[in-house]
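To fix ideas at the outset, we first show an illustrative case, written as a sequence plus integers encoding its fold:
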Amino acid sequence: MTASHDLTLSQAAVDTHPWLADGHLLPTDHTPVDTHSALVGGHLLTVSQARPEIHTRGADGHLLPTDQGSSDIQTQLVGGQPSVVPPDPQAKQVPMPNHVAPSGWVELRITADLFARAQAERIAVNNLLRTSDHDLFGPIVANLEETERLCKLALRRCYRKVVPASLRNLQKTEPGLGEDSFARILGHLGDPLIATPHWWEGTGSNRVLMQGEPYVRTVSQLWQYCGHGRPGRVSKGASAAELAALGSPTLKMLVHLQAEWCMRQQGRYRNLYAATRQAVENKVHSVPCVRCGPSGKPAIEGTPWSAGHQHAHALRIVGKEILRDMWLARKEEEGL
């Protein structure tokens, strides 16, 4: 049994992973912790879109929304933070398969974003009008609901047209993987197996977004890009590279919500959640934990994990398993 789920725009805590996002070496001025400054999660571009220079337009060739400046191109259309260091050509990478997934990932990203915006606007307006005269504002609410319906329909049609059969079969057979929620993850992620690195060169008005050659990423790189690598938290005053090392906040949130839906359905992911909760029910903190303590008073070493900490940990493990299954499905389809 599968279901379609509406995802809210809440955001979970971010994680990180020691693998580099694009498989390249760290620049010398970086610490040996995770980094995402050289990017991995972009989308395969068509020949007409693979231009050496992109300024006011995004990496997919489309104009940015009016509320986004050109400085935000990398975060919105590629994922992560910009870097002035190009990929290392000597880095070892897995060869590309002979068959590459069909184009259309950019369109899937746009429809996923449109659906999220329409849903958020409808929710916000309904909250605003909760105590108002619905006879007066009824037509406005109806228009917003119709816009959301059309965006959802466009997302489903694009998903069925663009996404490879292996991923669609996974979504249909695993309980909890709703078509809408799964499509939104893929809209922001692109192909789980094949990554296209992007990076910035230059500064100011001369800054240019460069595109590298697509390559096959590892499952660890996929986890890192989706914020499901080694746990980490945003600290005050963190640099752009440190924030980028934590992965995509949007994908982190979407995968977390997808794991919640899977946890509520009887199936393999529910069983994994239950086994993980049982494994950590007697676990104690090895370091102070802000998650389990009141604000300003982290739980001290030796104290047991709270139920909320256990729940969040189990959902993270389920999210990683979902991403692994997506990666394995594409890998098998490509014959790697």
